Structures are given as structure tokens and as C-alpha cells.
Amino acid sequence: MFCFYRVVVGGNNTTKNPPGNGQPTDININFKLFPDDYFTGYDVYAALVGSNNKGQSYTGSITEKTLAVTTFLGESAIPVESKTEFTITNGGFGSATLKNYYSVNADDRRFLGVGGNIVTVSATTTPIPETARIGDSGMIGTYIDNANFETTLSWRLEDGFNGNAKLVLLNVTDKPSGDLDNRFTTTYLIQPDGSRLSVKLVTYNDNVNIEVTLEGDY
């Protein structure tokens, strides 16, 4: 999931392996970066809980589902629809639905961009490896959207302990002026076969100085 969200509504967490807990994972294990069915029939849901840096509590959910092959930016693409919703203790509510588009070539898998609340109009992309080891990292691409905001995406694999790894996806979006607009980090706790056990979302919106953290298990 790559989130190009620019809306954070201001106004416990759960994780299977908190950082630093358990037996370190063997760094020689090759981890798949995507579940086996991610590009064919992925369909998952997770309930989320969390809070922001103002002390407000959140509840919500995230769903991800693979859709039929289509065309995006002039080429065949596989869309994975991501929908995130949350409510805040003060009654606030937020939601975002995006379609994340990937190239169809499994030997040259690239993230092409997004459609929905925000639309990618141009992109410079880098192939995403099928597997990686703890300590590996790389660029995913740079994307310009329909409001001329620029987003840079990257990934890294960290120790998830007890035989697992953490796939961390970092999304940094700048305004047309070059100033930071928002930063979004998605962390999946994964098994060697790419299965995702949990998700943690951390988003910081510089315009309102709010950071929200949401976590949940699949």
C-alpha cells in the first residue's frame, strides 16, 4: 500500500512483535516483499486503533483488494484498491480511497502511481525486487500528481524478530514550493513467504502539525 493522502483530521496500539522483543531474525533469509496473491486476488481487512500527538484516540479500519487489470498512464496495470477510515474521540472522521497501480510484468514489477482522491500524472519508477533480506533498501519512484505535488517513495527491510521482518514503506510528499506537505510510513510485519501479519500507519501532516499512528492485525 502506498498512500498519497494529504488529509489528516485532528481532533492501545497493537502489534504482534513490539520493536526489540523476541529472537532476532536470521539476516540470510530471503523475504518476499508481496504476498503470493497480491497481484491476483488479494483481499484483506484490518481493524485499527491508535492516537495522535494531541492525545486523541482513534479507531478505524483498512481494506486492500486486487481489482481487474486496466490501463494506467498508457500501459497495462494491476490496481490494488486501498480504503482507510477512522474516527476520533471528539467525533471527527476521515477516510481515503485510492487505487494503487502496478506494472503487470512480474520480472519488472514497478509501482506506477495512484488514482482516486489524488491522481498521478507522471512518474519515474524503479523496479521493486521480488525478495529482499533484512538490511536491504531501495527507491520505488518519484511521482507528480494533479496538484503538482511531488512524492518520493522508498522501501527498506528491518528485523521483525522471531523469524519475521518489517517491510517499511516511506512516502514523502512536497508542495509545489518544495516545502514538506506530509510524510507517511507504512510498516508491515511479514513472514518469509510475504504474508502480512500486521500493519502500522504513521502519518505526519506539516500543515496542521498532527502525527497520527494507527495499528492493527490481519
Topology:
Layout: E1 31-32, E2 43-52, E3 57-66, E4 70-72, E5 75-88, E6 93-103, E7 111-116, E8 120-125, E9 131-132, E10 137-145, E11 150-161, E12 164-174, E13 180-190, E14 196-205, E15 210-217
Antiparallel strand pairs: 1-9, 2-3, 2-15, 3-5, 4-5, 5-6, 6-7, 8-10, 10-11, 11-12, 12-13, 13-14, 14-15
Task: Describe the structure concisely.
This protein has no helices and 15 strands. Strands 2, 3, 4, 5, 6, 7, 8, 10, 11, 12, 13, 14 and 15 form a 13-stranded antiparallel beta sheet that branches. Strands 1-9 form a two-stranded antiparallel ribbon. It is 0% helix and 57% strand.
Kindly describe this structure.
The protein is mainly beta and 218 residues long. It has one domain (31-212). The chain has no helices and 15 strands. The relative contact order is 0.25.
C-alpha Rg, in Å?
17 Å
Helix content: under 10%
**Sequence of secondary-structure elements:** EEEEEEEEEEEEEEE
The rounded distance between the terminal residues' Cα atoms is: 14 Å
Rough outline = globular
Sheet bearing the most strands, described? 13 strands, antiparallel
Task: Output the structural class.
Answer: mainly beta
Short descriptors:
57% strand, 13-stranded antiparallel β-sheet, mainly beta, globular, 15 strands, 218 residues
